[in-house]
From TrEMBL:
This is BTB domain-containing protein. Residues 27-101 form the BTB domain. It holds the Pfam family BTB. InterPro entries: BTB/POZ_dom (IPR000210), SKP1/BTB/POZ_sf (IPR011333).
């Protein structure tokens, strides 16, 4: 459905469509994402998000409308696609109460948006659900780095990269960044330097016990003990 028009940089008009699922009749907060209009409940954004709470509760000058209070004053969200924002809204409007079944790709989108917009509870939920799903170590590490997720959750991922026979590839190194690559190389070298039970220096880190490897990773990466830290998904 056509709800309005918006002028773009080329002075032409682009139709603004109402989102099929998340333009709610009782919505009192309006967003515009790539010419798609959303009408949702302000309550969730004001209660859950430090970012939006500040935006929505800021005083306005006399005669001005509160941003997001109507379609004409909709909050424009950049660097997000309509389908991504819809996935994020699903967290609040999931018809199956407390049951959240979604693939890794969806939870990754939700995590990144929750981190960007400062939704701590949604971020914690996304991390908790991701921890239940399989994903390549490099992908998970990059996502958690980007979203400042508790590094204790990365210890098994770092360990897997140290224990595998093949070193990091160049593309993997570019994705991880120089600092992480150097730390993994250092941990691999330290693990390879330990003696096997037979007294032979091992060419791999596969012989090291899990607790020993975890301790080595903590030491090399400077990850403190989880004692006294916040819950799952807490930023470092």
């Amino acid at each position: 459905m056509v709800g309005a028009t918006q002028k773009n940089e080329f002075d032409s008009f682009v139709a603004v469509k109402k989102h099929e699922e998340y333009f709610l009749t009782g919505g009192d907060l309006f967003f515009l994402v790539d010419h798609v209009s959303f009408s949702v409940h302000r309550y969730f954004f004001e209660r859950e998000s430090l970012f939006f709470r500040s935006k929505l509760t800021s005083p306005v000058s006399p005669g001005s409308s509160v941003q997001g209070s109507s379609e004409s004053t909709a909050i424009i969200l950049d660097n997000v696609k309509p389908h991504e924002f819809a996935k994020f809204l699903w967290v609040f409007y999931n018809p199956k109460f407390s049951i959240y079944h979604a693939p890794v790709e969806d939870w990754t989108i939700i995590l990144k948006l929750a981190h960007r917009w400062k939704f701590p509870e949604v971020k914690e939920l996304a991390v908790r659900e991701l921890e239940l799903l399989a994903e390549p170590d490099i992908d998970r590490i990059c996502t958690y780095h980007e979203c400042d997720v508790d590094r204790n959750l990365l210890i098994p991922r770092y360990a897997a990269l140290c224990e595998r026979e093949d070193p990091l590839t160049v593309p993997e190194g570019f994705r991880l960044g120089m600092e992480t690559v150097l730390m993994i190389a250092r941990a691999r070298e330290s693990a390879r330097g330990n003696l096997t039970p037979s007294g032979i220096r091992s060419p791999t880190a596969a012989h090291i016990e899990e607790d020993e490897m975890s301790g080595l990773i903590r030491h090399v990466f400077g990850i403190p003990s989880p004692a006294g830290l916040g819950g799952i998904g807490s930023p470092v």
